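Key result, reporting period 2: structure in, sequence out.
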């Protein structure tokens, strides 16, 4: 059952920047840290009048009482959080854990694939499989070496780790599908594959495993509003059925997901998202101009000392 927020909000205890657009927030939330399981997500509001955004739980530590979120600043709200969220500040609301936890079953050999921002939420999955006794092969992909993060964390929980970069600056040159092909070539007895990343990446993963009949699970993160299945914004087509990612997922059979429909639905919101971002950036520009003018006025004002 989702946990309610205390009046003081949820304190950010750590902020770490992986690149100019990707950042980590470790948030103090003891109840959430004890309840969270791999694959689940939270809905976050930075302030009282902020947008509700879904974020996958990238890590959780019951002993410390914290959950970890890794965020990419691509829209108005995530850029606003990037500017405002620092260690010592608080998030207004963190609701969850939501979604059905990933099924960490009795698979003996598993491939855990993360691409870009999806590298963060695939980590608890890899750790969960390792703790269950599985042989874990990690495949993580980035555009280039400078954007890489958590390599050491993955090596600690994976029996094998394949790093892929688009430009070949680290590991295998190419997309994560190249890493998957390498894993399959070396391990004909893979039981299942779990993938998290952009829809086009997860579609590629599913098509790579399809000929080999390897069970493939993907984590879908469409647009959500309430996170309870009431708004219908996160509906996805799974085979001949319509499901809601917030309550029926976020994990689904990758070989049944209609990725083309998912990507088309996500594209419908791009104009509104761009307009919101432009309004936010203009407000920041105006605020910066006003603050600069106030500083100049203050410097020009005659001193009253002595």
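The corresponding designed sequence is given below.
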């Amino acid at each position: 059952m989702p946990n309610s927020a205390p009046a003081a909000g949820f304190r950010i205890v750590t902020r770490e920047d992986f690149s100019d657009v990707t950042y980590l927030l470790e948030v103090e939330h003891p109840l959430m840290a004890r309840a969270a399981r791999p694959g689940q997500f939270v809905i976050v509001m930075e302030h009282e009048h902020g947008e509700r955004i879904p974020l996958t739980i990238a890590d959780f530590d019951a002993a410390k009482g914290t959950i970890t979120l890794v965020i990419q600043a691509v829209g108005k709200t995530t850029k606003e959080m990037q500017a405002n969220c620092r260690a010592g500040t608080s998030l207004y609301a963190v609701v969850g854990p939501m979604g059905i936890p990933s099924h960490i079953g009795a698979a003996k050999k598993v491939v855990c694939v993360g691409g870009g921002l999806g590298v963060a939420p695939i980590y608890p999955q890899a750790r969960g499989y390792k703790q269950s006794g599985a042989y874990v092969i990690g495949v993580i992909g980035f555009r280039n070496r400078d954007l890489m993060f958590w390599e050491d964390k993955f090596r600690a929980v994976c029996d094998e780790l394949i790093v892929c970069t688009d430009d070949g600056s680290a590991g295998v040159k190419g997309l994560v599908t190249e890493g998957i092909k390498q894993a399959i070539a070396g391990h004909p007895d893979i039981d299942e594959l779990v993938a998290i990343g952009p829809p086009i990446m997860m579609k590629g993963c599913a098509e790579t495993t399809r000929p080999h009949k390897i069970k493939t699970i993907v984590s879908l993160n469409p647009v959500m509003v309430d996170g309870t299945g009431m708004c219908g914004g996160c509906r996805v087509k799974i085979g001949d059925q319509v499901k809601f990612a917030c309550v029926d997922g976020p994990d689904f059979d990758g070989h049944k997901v209609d990725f083309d429909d998912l990507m088309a639905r996500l594209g419908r919101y791009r104009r509104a998202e761009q307009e919101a971002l432009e309004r936010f950036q203009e407000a920041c520009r105006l605020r910066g101009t006003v603050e600069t003018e106030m500083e100049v006025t203050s410097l020009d004002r005659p001193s009253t000392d002595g």
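The chain has nine helices and 17 strands. The radius of gyration is 21 Å. This case is discussed further under Risks and Mitigation.
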